[in-house]
Write a structure and sequence with these properties.
By secondary structure, the protein is of the alpha+beta class. It folds into two domains: 233 residues, Beta-lactamase (3-Layer(aba) Sandwich), CATH 3.40.710.10; 68 residues, no CATH class. 31% of the residues lie in helices and 33% in strands. The chain contains nine helices and 19 strands. The strands form seven sheets. It has a five-stranded antiparallel β-sheet, sandwiched between helices. The longest helix has 16 residues.
Length: 330
């Protein structure tokens, strides 16, 4: 009996020290999109259901959450994860988005695409157009679900998916839905979010899970500590939730949020522009600020190029009237 206990203890210790292997991953600061850690982050592969982050964003930006309609017959041929919609069932876009993000419902994804895009083909074109706009240069979407057995699925990289999550988190509706632990649908189904980090890690803010045989386990999560939000993307990693928690914790311990531009109105080169919120960069604790800022006017915008720790960030501020503020990587 004692020998069995010793063997069990040794096995547990071995499991704890084994390195976590992943096909690729990216750890990024959400605000300024700095890459803090990575392995083969530009390697392309099927990304499975984490591509539903894009499905959700197109629905939120192009649709009306209060829209209600009857489900089409298209859902009758859907495979994989489901929220078990029925043909002619009355649904709202809002409930479908919760079913999409919390339970990864492929039937919800197809129904959203049919309603918002008119058909799946149009909706996928919208997904790819948005990917190009965000800067996801190594991404191709083929469907709204992430299934990959019939058409090869949605191909992307850990870096591109981190860019997408950074973009999505700036949308309050997405952030609320993707960070919800439990939701009761209008037809009284109670859903629990598949993102276990929301329940096990108190700094966790949002995320999306994925899995197919071709893609393996895929996972996108975000966490926030003192204004510093980190994004972790792993592709084809078995022990992904443990890795994500450890990566987020490393970021919170090793980095801090540094304000480089405060909220307010500014006048530069006789031109006025507004910054509606404080802008932060992820700064490694115990090191010099090492910030260099260059500005110029381009097509009605004040453009700031921020160089920080060998990474270049580009921020655009519409002049005078508009309050919109954006930031993107060069």
């Amino acid at each position: 009996m004692e020998l069995k206990k010793i063997i069990c203890c040794l096995l547990l210790l071995t499991l704890q020290i084994l390195p976590i292997k992943a096909e690729s991953y990216c750890v990024m600061s959400g605000e300024d999109q700095q890459v803090l850690e990575e392995k083969d982050m530009h390697k392309q592969q099927s990304v499975a259901s984490i591509s539903k982050i894009m499905t959700a964003m197109i629905a939120i930006e192009k649709g009306n959450l209060q829209d209600r309609w009857q489900c089409s017959e298209a859902i009758e041929t859907v495979d994989g994860s489901m929220i078990y919609l029925q043909k002619d069932q009355m649904v709202s876009l809002e409930s479908l988005l919760y079913g999409l993000m919390l339970r990864s419902g492929n039937d919800a994804a197809v129904e959203i695409a049919e309603h918002v895009g008119g058909n799946e083909e149009n909706f996928v074109a919208m997904m790819n157009e948005k990917a190009k706009e965000i800067g996801m240069s190594r991404t191709l979407f083929r469907n709204p679900t992430g299934l990959d057995e019939k058409d090869g699925g949605n191909v992307s990289t850990a870096y591109d998916m981190a860019l997408l999550m950074s973009y999505a988190l700036k949308n309050r509706t997405f952030r609320k839905i993707a960070g919800t632990k439990y939701y009761t649908s209008e037809w009284n189904y109670r859903w629990k979010n598949k993102n276990r980090l929301l329940f096990s890690y108190d700094k966790s803010t949002a995320g999306k899970t994925g899995f197919t045989k071709q893609a393996g386990r895929t996972l996108v999560t975000s966490a926030e500590n003192k204004q510093l939000e980190s994004i972790v993307v792993t592709l084809d990693m078995h022990d992904d939730f443990r890795f994500h928690e450890q990566a987020h914790q490393r970021v919170s311990e090793e980095y801090e949020a540094l304000v480089w531009l405060d909220k307010g109105s500014y006048r530069v080169q006789e031109k006025q522009f507004a910054v509606e919120r404080k802008l932060y960069v992820a700064h490694k604790k115990g090191t010099g600020a090492n910030l260099r800022v260059h500005s110029h006017i381009e097509q009605g915008e004040m453009v700031y190029e921020l160089q920080h720790h060998e990474q270049s960030l580009l921020y655009r501020f519409p002049l005078a009237a508009s309050k919109k503020t954006t930031g993107e990587r060069l």
